[in-house]
Amino acid sequence: MKLEFSTSKLEKQCESRKARSRAFGDERGKRLERRLSALLAAHCLEDLRNAPGRLHELKGDYDGRLSLDLDGPNRLIFEPVLSGNETPDPSGFLSWSQITHVRIVSIEDTHA
For residue 6, is pLDDT > 60? Predict the structure, then answer.
């Protein structure tokens, strides 16, 4: 899957183990590395449906975004980047098998 980042600061925080540890702490940095690696290795979001990290769609203020668990209440928040080839699901949910490009938006506690 293709990844991009919403800000250059976030991209720099995620680009190396040292940068991840400095920005997010050792444990969260390690989990973040595993989640980013899983996203990169996947062909589409459907490949991650049952993978560790509890991938799920968000609602409310985060509608249209997805989340992967990191540690405690902290989540890796990202959104699909649609190229125009994807067709919307009639139910209003994302068609996970068609999403092959995502934008990392943030690492945060969505419950705060």
Answer: yes
